[in-house]
């Protein structure tokens, strides 16, 4: 770890131009040290920014300086992967807390499949905690979306961490689309329309929360976010779209709003140069910044034999936390 940090310190002396290289960061400040991009499998995407490999060794031994390097790479690249980890759920929660304010969602939002004794962990898996198969419909997040859009600003500035403990033989990639790149390349007409619009997010319209109890849903009133936004940490320009389930405010009609949202989502997700698709290996710890990217889970053969076992945790960016420390228990703020 010491050698890696020394190399990282040396890399900080590079000029901005040298650090940028040929990679287009679309308004993000370049990282303090250069990272290789993770490109594996036939389904890759064409982004030159998303999906950097960050080598900090065993995250169980990470110190404060190492956590700062992880966060800086995440800010610059939007998505990073730390390879070869062997984490218990408690160790993942500890690592999550090193990066930001740990988030705990209501139990009914977690697919009614809580991880025993670890409320900050969501089981993203096709098998229940008791080992039985959830069935062919036991999948999550199979549409383009951001996490956390139902939180009021600035509490929506959320990082997601997904750790792979078991994988099917093939398939099951996670796709990402770059909201910095999408904003930077909008046509003048789309930019002008988006500038006067906001998305309105409701937990009641989020597919993964369909089994939420009325008591838990009521904790989160509807919120609005401008479609044109800036990044909390470096001020870079972003689109903020949520998902196809959002209502759009600011257009003459609801239908006009749906058309605009559809066009913006298509621009972001269907431009190859804006996308990255992560092909998983055991021990991958994938971290993404939800204000910078949309993500999408892709299919695999979920036949009751193949096991896809992932564990998700989330943290709020520290600059977004209004003077609190420790974990964030769910509820309206």
In short:
This protein has 333 residues and is α+β, with helices and mostly antiparallel strands.
3D structure, described in words:
By secondary structure, the protein is an alpha+beta fold. The protein has one domain (52-317): Clavaminate synthase-like (Double-stranded beta-helix, 4-Layer Sandwich), CATH 3.60.130. Helices cover 22% and strands 21% of the residues. The strands form four sheets. Strands 1, 2, 3, 4, 5, 13, 15 and 16 form an eight-stranded mixed beta sheet that branches. The longest helix is centred in the last third of the chain and has 16 residues, at 254-269. Residues 5-23 and 320-326 have low confidence and may be disordered.
Task: Using brief descriptors, characterize the structure shown.
Double-stranded beta-helix, eight-stranded mixed sheet, TauD/TfdA-like domain-containing protein, metal-binding, 333 residues, alpha+beta, TauD/TfdA-like
In terms of topology, how is this protein built?
Blueprint: H1 2-11, H2 16-20, E1 52-53, H3 64-77, E2 79-82, H4 89-99, E3 101-104, E4 122-125, E5 158-166, E6 174-178, H5 179-184, H6 188-195, E7 198-201, H7 214-217, E8 223-226, E9 228-230, E10 237-239, E11 247-249, H8 254-269, E12 275-278, E13 285-289, E14 293-297, E15 309-316, E16 328-329
Parallel strand pairs: 1-2, 3-16
Antiparallel strand pairs: 2-13, 3-15, 4-15, 5-13, 5-15, 6-12, 6-14, 7-8, 7-11, 9-10
């Amino acid at each position: 770890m010491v050698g890696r940090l020394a190399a990282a310190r040396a890399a900080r002396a590079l000029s901005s131009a040298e650090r940028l290289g040929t990679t287009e960061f679309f308004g993000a400040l370049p990282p303090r040290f250069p990272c290789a991009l993770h490109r594996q499998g036939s389904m890759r995407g064409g982004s030159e920014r998303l999906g950097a490999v960050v080598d900090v060794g065993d995250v169980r031994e990470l110190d404060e300086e190492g956590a700062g390097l992880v966060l800086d790479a995440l800010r610059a690249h939007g998505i990073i992967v730390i390879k070869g980890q062997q984490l218990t759920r408690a160790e993942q929660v500890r690592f999550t807390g090193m990066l930001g304010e740990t988030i705990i969602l209501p139990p009914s939002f977690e697919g009614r499949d809580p991880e025993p004794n670890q409320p900050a962990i969501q089981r993203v898996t096709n098998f229940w905690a008791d080992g039985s198969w959830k069935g062919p419909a036991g999948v999550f997040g199979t549409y383009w979306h951001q996490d956390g859009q139902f939180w009021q600003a600035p509490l929506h500035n959320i990082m997601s961490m997904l750790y792979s403990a078991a994988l099917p033989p093939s398939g099951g990639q996670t796709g990402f689309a770059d909201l910095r790149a999408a904003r930077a390349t909008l046509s003048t007409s789309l930019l002008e329309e988006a500038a006067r619009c906001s998305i309105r997010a409701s937990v009641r319209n989020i597919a993964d929360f369909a089994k939420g109890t009325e008591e838990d849903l009521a904790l989160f009133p509807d919120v609005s976010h401008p479609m044109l936004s800036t990044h909390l940490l470096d001020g870079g320009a972003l689109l903020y779209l949520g998902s196809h389930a959002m209502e759009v405010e600011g257009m003459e009609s609801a239908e006009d709003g749906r058309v605009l949202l559809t066009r913006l989502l298509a621009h972001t997700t269907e431009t190859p140069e804006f996308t990255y698709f992560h092909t998983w290996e055991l021990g991958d710890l994938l971290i993404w910044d939800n204000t910078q990217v949309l993500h999408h889970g892709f299919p695999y053969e979920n036949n009751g034999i193949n096991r896809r076992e992932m564990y998700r945790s989330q943290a709020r960016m520290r600059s977004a936390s209004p003077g609190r420390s420790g974990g964030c228990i769910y509820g309206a703020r």
